[in-house]
Design goal:
Layout lengths: L1 H14 L5 H14 L9 H13 L4 H20 L25 H8 L4 H13 L3 H5 L6 E2 L4 E4 L10 E3 L1
Antiparallel strand pairs: 1-2, 2-3
Helix pairs in contact: 1-2, 1-4, 2-4
Length: 168
């Protein structure tokens, strides 16, 4: 069943230490939507029906794609592990309109920053200054400080896109 494939995917993510809360939630949502379907019986009609339902509820294309993406990853893992012979076609919706929005000016950020609890102020200032993602910032520890304390390096395994970067 798709449920079993998703459980295998979750175990694989856990083993590779990439089972974040976001991944766990996405896998759970995929299981709620498709877990009852047999893996061999799964076909594009299941995906199309899910897409139609989610669009009718007002969900964004990117949100829908994340869920169907977990199903696709689960099938791909099953093929790699010789449990299945092929990954079925799973439609992806366009995300061309999924552009980051909601940036604020330095002045706006400073007004918000003034009202943050003390333990969040440094983290927020670092994230605002570097443009790094929340998960990237909170993954930092002293091993990221290098070059005689003049450079903070984000390792590729800490970066969402897999590319490390540095800030002085």
């Amino acid at each position: 069943s798709i449920h079993d494939l998703l459980e295998s995917l979750k175990a694989d993510f856990e083993q590779r230490k990439i089972l974040s809360d976001q991944n766990r939630s996405g896998i759970k949502t995929a299981d709620e939507a498709f877990g009852h379907v047999g893996a061999v019986a799964f076909n594009p009609k299941h995906v199309n029906s899910y897409i139609e339902q989610q669009l009718a509820k007002g969900y964004a294309n990117a949100t829908i794609n994340r869920v169907t993406g977990f199903v696709e990853q689960a099938f791909a893992l099953a093929v790699k592990e010789d449990k299945l012979h092929k990954v079925p076609y799973i439609k992806h919706l366009s995300e061309s309109d999924n552009v980051r929005q909601g940036f604020c000016s330095k002045e706006e950020f400073l007004r918000v920053h003034a009202h943050l609890p003390e333990d969040l102020k440094d983290v927020a200032m670092f994230a605002f200054t570097t443009g790094w993602r929340r998960g990237e910032v909170i993954s930092l520890d002293w091993s990221n400080v290098q070059d005689n304390d003049t450079m903070i390096r984000l390792r590729p395994d800490q970066a969402k896109n897999g590319f490390g970067r540095s800030v002085p």
